[in-house]
Design goal:
Blueprint lengths: L3 H17 L5 H19 L3 E7 L6 E7 L6 H10 L12 E2 L10 H10 L3 E9 L2 E10 L6 H9 L1 H14 L14 E5 L5 E4 L3 H8 L11 H14 L8 E7 L2 E9 L11 E7 L2 H11 L4 H11 L4 H8 L3 H15 L4 H9 L2
Antiparallel strand pairs: 1-2, 1-5, 3-4, 4-5, 6-7, 6-10, 8-9, 9-10
Length: 352
């Protein structure tokens, strides 16, 4: 086991990596996570991993960086992950390992996926702050259990990583180039096992950008698996968050994925789940934008009214504030978002 000094050095390198992360693109957020995993592996010795961004409000996973023994088994692993209440990221307050529970109390992911593969332990942690949940990490280990010191290291780097993930998401909000083609709704049909049963023709191209596939292979729709698995978790009473996630695609474009049951019609659709993928609405963008930039609740309310076309007088009346106080709030929003005018602020927040 590495010495405490090695842990300190690793923590220092992680904080430097996080501080240097510029964000601004889904690929850069992916590279940040790859660098963090590369730094952690020598000191924690894990064998497989899943490091996901999440919608900060619904806490549903998207845009994963993952390596598991059999990628073809991904739908089943995701389904079991969402159906397991033990150490679920939505309820975690610190790093935790499954080895802290008796085998019979570790949940379906352990019983049906991890234990048959010979996994010895799984450590989980969440990246959450007062503005939302920005991601979670699972580390699989075959040879030994995770100890208190190792979980302590994960706890130590939670704060800088959370800040880096949130800053990276904030930087994805840019005004989109003029003439950019906006995608129409895309649909995936998943079975009860989350295997893809059908899709609209354009789905593969967008999913390939959501989750870059290995060269020469078909895109893995992991973001779709996650929203569908959240629907199963809601139905099973494991977690009450909606089966919805917003994810940045590229060039300031944000997409919203939703999962819903196909109504039984006697035509062979029983048990199917429809996952729709479409451009996020202005309101959906504004919610993520405000949280990613750390705006206060009042500042987010002001931003929403501004997006509806309200001027200073209307803002003051709607918020029961003086126009002078409204200007103070606007200055604070400009400072936090790095903008200098209402027009530039809305162009970035709305992608227009």
């Amino acid at each position: 086991m590495p010495s405490p000094t090695a842990y300190d050095r690793s923590y220092e390198r992680i904080t430097r990596i996080c501080a240097a992360a510029a964000g601004g693109d889904t690929r850069e957020l992916r590279e940040l996570r790859v660098r963090l995993l590369r730094e952690l592996r020598p000191v924690l010795g894990f064998d497989a991993f899943a490091f996901l961004l999440t919608d900060p409000v619904t806490e549903v996973g998207c845009a994963p960086v993952a390596r598991i023994p059999d990628v073809q088994d991904l739908p089943r692993v995701v389904r079991l992950k969402y159906l397991t209440p033990v150490n679920r990221w939505t309820s975690l307050t610190g790093a935790a390992a499954l080895s802290g529970y008796e085998p019979g109390a570790r949940g379906p992911m352990w019983a049906e996926a991890l234990r048959p593969l010979g996994v010895r332990d799984l450590a989980s942690m969440v990246f959450r702050d007062r503005h939302g949940c920005w991601g979670f990490l699972d580390l699989w280990r075959y040879g030994a259990e995770f100890g208190p010191a190792e979980l302590g290291l994960l706890d130590r780097f939670a704060a800088p990583v959370t800040a880096a993930l949130r800053a990276g998401q904030a930087a994805t909000f840019t005004a989109r180039p003029a003439g950019t083609v906006r995608p129409g709704p895309l649909v995936l049909l998943l079975g009860p096992d989350l295997r893809v049963r059908g899709r609209t023709p354009e789905s593969d191209a967008y999913l390939a950008r959501l989750i870059p596939p290995e060269e020469g292979s078909a895109p893995v729709p992991a973001a779709a698996y996650n929203v569908a698995a959240q629907l199963l978790a809601r139905e099973a009473g494991v977690d009450g968050h909606p089966a919805r996630a917003r994810v940045h695609l590229a060039d300031g474009l944000w997409l919203t994925l939703r999962a819903a049951r196909i109504e039984e019609s006697g035509g062979g659709a029983e048990g199917l789940i429809a996952v729709t993928i479409e451009e996020s609405t202005p309101a959906e963008r504004l919610e993520i934008f405000g949280r990613a930039y750390g705006l206060s609740e009042r500042e987010r309310e002001l931003l929403a009214l501004l997006a509806e076309g309200a001027d200073s007088h209307a803002l003051a009346g709607a918020l029961f504030l003086s126009e002078h106080t409204v200007q103070d709030h606007l200055k604070s929003v400009f400072a936090k978002t790095g903008t200098h005018s209402r027009r530039a602020l809305l162009a970035r927040a709305l992608g227009t």
